Amino acid sequence: MALFPQLAQASGTRFSAGQPGASASSEGAGFGVRSTSLGKNRDTPPAKPAGAARAYRPYIRQAAAQRLVSGYWSNEGENLRGSSVAGCGRWKAHGAPAGVAQIEVDAKQARMTGHFICGCNWTCEMCARATVARNRSWLRGALFPALHEKGLSGSLVTFTLAHSYNEAWDVPVAALKKAYGLMDRRMAKVYKKAGSVGKFKAFEVTVGMNGLHPHLHVLLTHDKAADLEALEAELKGAWFKAVEEAGGRCTDRGFDFQPNRLNDYAAKMEAAHELSAQSTKLGRKKGKTLSQLLDMAAVGDLERGAEWQRAIGALGSTNRFHAGNLAKKLGIPSPSEWEDEEEQDAQAELELEEQAPPLIIEYALEDHLRATHPALGRPGLAMILRAAKRGGREKALSMVRALCDDYARKRMPHWMATAHEPWSVEPGTDIMRAAHERPLNPAEVREYLRIKETHRAGYLVAA
Ligand SMILES: [Zn+2]
Fold first, then answer.
1. Residues 10-36, mean pLDDT to the nearest whole number
2. Residues 17 and 114 in one domain
3. End-to-end CA gap in the chain
4. Which pLDDT band, with edges at 50, 70 and 90, does 435 fall under?
């Protein structure tokens, strides 16, 4: 309040920043500060983002995804799986104080606190990054050392099948999964002979001239002394046979075997990267990664945006990472139990230094929902957080207000309402229905629980 008393009085708003439980302004971010100019409505990610720009790029991609899932909802009348990305960092988390948006700024970063985290690994760049980082850290910090201790190694196998642009994109996804399942079951004896304790699988897609290109990277564990030539030959034969049976097509490039990929430190780092990367340069050769499609959609490439939607639709409930029984067999924590060590170290270092308490910036949730609304076509979250990091409370609130003004000027489509984002209460109705009709498989149970959380968060906003 002390910052701009006259203006706050003059406009009669009850907005007060920085006080927990502050009452929220009811119309727009009605607080008086020097106005912020938003510039042209073009959230172009810089071609080679450096420093700060790179830090906000995931938010820009997230904003593009939010626009694409809400656009899909308005056109098709149904949700893509992973549509709750639309509320990530926007809706309030279950149990967090309602009605107030909260930013925490510390020496390192500015971020939303007490907000819904969608946890979608295909649609949400922010959540996917966290999952990818955790899995990579688990490979390096838990799995590889445990394998080494037991005298085991691993080979990297990549399974792919042929695909074309005009066929339905869920066809190659389904065929790949089915073929892998068939092959995997038949290989049980071969695995056993090689001394395998299990596999780590990573599902990946790129989009190129031939449409959706799904592939599976598998780290297959085995004895250091296993006969890898025999293993490769068995796997390869079984793979081509299984692809045919699953109704897929396969060229010679559909199978790649890299023996003993865990020999030295560099090989391990590389293997971990190959198994868990969010957006790699490799993608460019074989097509675009989902993240790259979002970059292009963000600058108005409608075709790439439609391809992203099509890819997300085709992926359905596909798991991105799967460690099977590896953790159990080796007596190590599972990837989901694993805490990122690097992050913890960095955190511990920060705590050792005398840390100033973080700056807390609060404003009305309703303003936050407007300022970050997908229909605005701006990466609002990135803009607000960057302003908060650079200019503290004043700049952040000024940015929120500028975005809210923009929102007020926009002619919003009929389906759009601030608090009632229609898609926020709908995601995954199919799985909710299925839950009443049949037992769910483990992957579905996870999704079911996640959606229930989402619903709660969505209702909190709507209430
Ligand atoms: Zn998310």
1. 40
2. yes
3. 27
4. low
pLDDT at 107: 87
* Gap from CA of 43 to ligand 1 centroid (Å): 19
Q: Which two tokens stand for residue 432?
A: 């909710």
Q: Residue 206: which of 291, 128, 127 has the closest Cα?
A: 291
The SS3 assignment for 257 reads strand
69 C-alpha to ligand 1 centroid (Å): 13
Distance from the alpha carbon of residue 106 to the mean position of ligand 1, in angstroms: 21
Q: How far is the CA of 356 from the centre of ligand 1 (A)?
A: 28
**Domain membership flag for residue 172:** yes
CA dihedral for 62, 64, 67, 71, sign (positive or negative):
negative
Same-domain check for residues 401 and 442: yes
pLDDT for position 328: 95
The model's pTM is 0.78
Domain check: are 266 and 162 in the same one?
Answer: yes
**Distance from the CA of 389 to the center of ligand 1, in angstroms?**
21
283 shares its domain with 374? no
Are 424 and 393 members of one domain? yes
Residue 254 lies in a domain: yes
Same domain, 279 and 403: no
Look at residue 351 in the predicted model and tell me its pLDDT: 65
Report the percentage of the chain scoring pLDDT > 70. Answer: 73
The pair of three-digit structure tokens given for residue 43, joined into one six-digit string: 């959230």
Query: Which range of residues forms the domain containing residue 176?
Result: 151-324
Task: Domain count for the chain, please give it.
Answer: 2
Higher-pLDDT residue of 257, 253: 257
pLDDT band of 309, cuts 50, 70, 90: very high
Classify strands 321-322 and 211-223 as parallel, antiparallel or unpaired: unpaired
Residue 142 lies in a domain: no
Same domain, 197 and 277: yes
Q: Quote the ligand 1 centre to 88 CA distance (angstroms).
A: 5
How many angstroms does the Cα of residue 149 sit away from the middle of ligand 1? 36
Q: What is the mean pLDDT of the chain?
A: 80
Task: Find the 60 Cα to ligand 1 centroid distance in Å.
Answer: 12
Rounded to the nearest angstrom, the distance between the alpha carbon of 285 and the centre of ligand 1 is 28
Asked whether residue 419 is assigned to any structural domain, the reply reads: yes
Strand 199-208 vs strand 211-223: parallel, antiparallel, or unpaired? antiparallel
